[in-house]
Amino acid sequence: MNQFDNEKMFTIKCSRADFEHLQELFESGELNKRLGVEVIDMGITSTEFSTESIILSQWLKGIIQPSWQVIQSNIAGSHLTLVTQGNLDNQAKYCSVSCKRYYKSENYIDGNSVELIVKIKLTQSQGEMDIKVIAKPCRYQSFLPQGLKLILLVDSDILAEVEARSADKIIHYGLTGDIGDNFSVKLALGDVSMKEDFVI
Fold first, then answer.
1. Is 108 exposed, middle or buried (0-12, 13-18, 19+ CB in 10 A)?
2. Are 73 and 63 a contacting pair, CB within 8 Å?
3. Where exactly are the structural domains of the chain?
4. Half-sphere exposure (CA, 13 Å, Cβ side) for 14?
5. What is the pTM of this model?
6. Each residue of 3-41: pLDDT tens digit?
7. Is the distance from CB of 94 to CB of 121 less than 8 angstroms?
């Protein structure tokens, strides 16, 4: 008998927070103990996974969502004022911040993990922000999966689309926007995608 004959796959529907909790249990080995079976891998199989909007101006005030990891930040000068909607005198803690989060799904990226990095920086013009969006493989992989697309959208319209080739280590796109503007970033491979919504 083939050792894989008795393997089974099951699908569950849950919130993003529940998925991340299950992923933590899986990575620690606790999920196997609780279920009493061996879970070999887990990932997102929905055709599109969207999250609540990330407010990037909050990053400059040091308010970072738990699912994002700060990789670099630069302290703002005491004179720097961040213009936000409804508040014209909001002191910024940082003048630039870079954060990342990673995605892993067997069906989505062939078992590889992809990091999404977002770098933001206040410009010399008050109320504007420079943004750079980067997709790169996690440290244990050398290249992005071929055909992975980094798509930027504004009001569901495609602003830019960058596609990874066979030996690309990184794909990226930069833009400038005003405080309060909205945009989305989609990572897509084949019929499956994950989308993050942002408010500048």
1. buried
2. no
3. 1-42, 48-199
4. 12
5. 0.69
6. 445 566 667 766 666 777 787 888 888 888 888 888 887
7. no
